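Thread: sanity check for a docking pose with pyridoxal-5'-phosphate

Original post by kr_44:
Hi all, I'm comparing my docking run against an independent structure prediction. Below are the sequence and the ligand SMILES. Could someone generate the full complex and paste the structure tokens? I mainly care about where the ligand ends up relative to the chain.
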Amino acid sequence: MSESLDLTAAKRPVHGGARPDQLRAGILDFSASINPYAPPPGLRRVLAAADVKNYPDPATGRLTALLASAHNLGPEQVLVGNGASELVFLIARALLRPGSRVVVVGPAFGEYAYASALAGAEVTTYLAPEAAGFVPDTAELVRLLGRSRPAVIWAANPANPTGVYLPSDPFEAILEACGGILVLDEAFRSFVDGPWPSEVLLGTGRVILLRSLTKDFGLAGLRLGYLLGPPELVNLVRAHQPPWSVNALAQAAGEFVLTRPGFLETCRARVARRRRELREALRRLGLEVSDGAANFLLVRTGMASACAQFLLEERRILVRDCTSFGLPDHIRVAVRRRPENRRLAAALAEWVRRRPGP
Ligand SMILES: Cc1ncc(COP(=O)(O)O)c(C=O)c1O
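Reply from moderator J.T.:
Ran it for you. Here is the predicted complex with pyridoxal-5'-phosphate included:
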């Protein structure tokens, strides 16, 4: 359950996302989960007009005001970052000291543990059981939190790579079980049908919500994310952020995408249809597929690394081998547009026919 990280470059967390040379070579990337209908039309014009000669607003004032009003919060409760990932590192630096304890609700995005360990914290990972569909056992988690009394608890909702989306109760139980700060990463929340209003947790004064605009609006190359939290915590995290961290192009893009009414909602509905179709197509192949709520699916293919290698070398499709999440029999696949999803399903049908027997 407990893990200590080797902080050499080789041990940096593994991510999805094709390399530029793979993209140039026409590899179809199912390994990074980005809104397949993004970015919104008109973005290129906005980028071309952005002022790159002068320093960007270090306070990201206009974007912060837009986000604050979208969430009905004050601007002092919002911090914009260079992707949600920058904010993960800033939170760890601001809230942790050598010897602080941290609990990660896993399987999870590797950067929580890595950033915490860089800050000198002792990291314990709770792994949600596969037998329960990767839904955490709240009672077991609460016992662990009671024992380890962490300063910070990292959790994602929906979780990556399982896609499990939890109601508010487990998070309320986590907050009751210990006095630590809960960082709830909602990078994939925009793809959930009818999500609950997590902003209510901000009232506890011990919750930070993380959001990613890079996935929502297809800005992964620009980098844009934000957090919501109580003013004191937001200030503390802000104090660690380098000036001009959010560049002029990202700020202009953010201001543009947040004023496209209905764009995200239309994408969410389309992605939900594609997710259902892809899940059904893969289940028809006899594959176990998660009931995930996000814009990706966790698929039990057996021998994930061999499956990923087959798909890449023989079908020019890149998927996320989940071995580094501790799931060597699973791959994670993004939900893309219909013709691409069909190509993936056909390739996986071939894998099912060809894979070595048990
Ligand atoms: C759960 C989770 N949070 C955050 C991120 C990073 O988001 P961003 O691209 O905004 O830095 C990722 C990226 O894959 C992720 O999976």
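Residues 263-284 form the longest helix (22 residues). Hope that helps with the comparison, let us know if your pose agrees.
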